[in-house]
Amino acid sequence: MVVITPAHSWDVQVEHLETGYLKDVALAPSKSSTPWLIVALDAGGIAVLDAQAQPVFQVEGRWIERLDAIIAGEQVILVAPEEQAGIHLWSVDKASGALSHWMGENSLWPVDFAPVVACLAYDPAEDQRFVFVANERGRIHHYRVLDAAANPTLRLIRSLDIGGEISSCSAGPNHQWLYATEPGVGVWRLSIGSEAETIREPVALVAPFGLLDEALKVDVSPSGVLTVLGEDTIYFLDANRGSVLRSESMSPEALGAEGFSVDGTWMVLGVEGDEREGGGRLMSTAFPDLQLTQPARPSQLPRVEAVVETDPVSSAGDAADDPAVWIHPEESAKSLILGTDKQAGLYVYDLAGDVQQFLPAGKVNNVDVRYGFELSDGSMMDIAVATNRTHGVLTIWGIDRATGKLAELGAGQENLAMNEPYGLCLYHDAELNAFYAIANSKAGEVEQYRLISTDSGRITTQLVRSFEVGSITEGCVVDDQHHRLFIGEETRGIWVYDARPDHLASTDDRSLVDAVTPEGRLTADIEGLALYLDGKDKGYLVASVQGVNQFALYDRQPPYVFRGFFEIVANPANGIDGVSETDGLEVVSQSLGPTFPMGLLVAQDGRNVEPVERQNFKLIPWHAIVESVID
pTM (2 decimals)? Predict the structure, then answer.
């Protein structure tokens, strides 16, 4: 038998493993000072062993070769892939070592591929559990565990590609990284966040490109030490830098180990028995006392959740871009979301996110709405205007106040002087009853056009001002009551100009709200801008800080006091993912019914995951932002 003790020596063969072949081992916390040893026995299923390596619980009739166990809050969870069946999830009783189905009536969750490796992650900030499952081709499927009693399930978030065979994976501390071993190549890491980019990074490579003799299995200790099982050596690495802190040659009895697990106090290896006798050997030793300074986890920003998401746009890739909101004049709950598909046209959604209309206008990039435009016959029309890259024009629609239907109102002469129109915002000067469209380009050009009613009841444009911002710009919004034009220069910051066309707009005639670091607190790219209007003077400016998947909030009035950053995170209960890579956004302050009593924020979502879909727009109640950021 084997006794797990904190001695720096290897233990002897485990003689009782007579059924199946020892393939893997996992350490699971127990009520005592020593953890439970859980072993995968191939055709022999799973056995839970005590400190004397005696079985206390066994699952038979399953073919299990890989295991992973974590502590998640008050629970200890075990995951095991069964290649021809699916993924098993068990809860481990700390007192007895017994396994029970974690969710539902069966431990097995079928998947539509052959799983060979699985590992678990826990996000304490959100009290959320995740499963990562890899197939033999190196594709990792990332699932959220939904263990609601009424409908327990695994929800696919996204898929990640390592590129080759994966022999193990392990989630690091602070819920930041997933580490995976590719035999013959080394250790990779990928960001664990569901909204993160799906980019793999090398941590430690096999010789001759790195220091490892092999990378068979990886496990991360609670302190952040990345422990890698090699061919003849065990490596202890700094999980953040990939540097080797220490290495130990394995004893002859440990050579050939495939099973491997650490928990910060213990380290256990498992070696498969011979073909005739089966079983195997377990060897344990104390985990080295390594001093590793963990980088401070960034302080958590205020988080809000979307409560509605729109149907995806039809175009693949980077397509959805900028939203606007049209408010119904009589029944605010019938208000509409306008969203551009910059490859195809304009979508119109209701407040439930369902498509009500699609206008195949071409490559419309940014859109905005104003109310009460007077046509030549004296009738009033609400309007929506968008930059159109297909034709290099402004596309103008009228909005029927009774039905919310959009129809083109342009006179066909709304050409832009700039080469490639990009962003757009509208401005209504109530004193002159003049409406303007302000368009910009990737070259930093800004052109301001007055919207003019024609005798035929349509709308055309007249260029009244043009100026240069300096570099690429897109997001803009106008505070009509104060004649302020806010423009986001993507890599520099947010500027304020006078929106009136007879005012100067040079670099000397503008003021700065905030700048990109190091001059300010923002991170490039600065994308969408929107205003929450509260009466004549109160309210807020909201900016999409695309480079870090955040949103910045400022006072509407000078000196534009910074109120804070916030993130839009997943809403697991409603099955809505978070928001990342946001281009355009819109904010309204009017009540839009019981779901949005203080108005809402609409944000384009650059990565629509959980599951992966084409891009769409997310709707966030404004009161959630007030409660999280402002109060």
Answer: 0.91
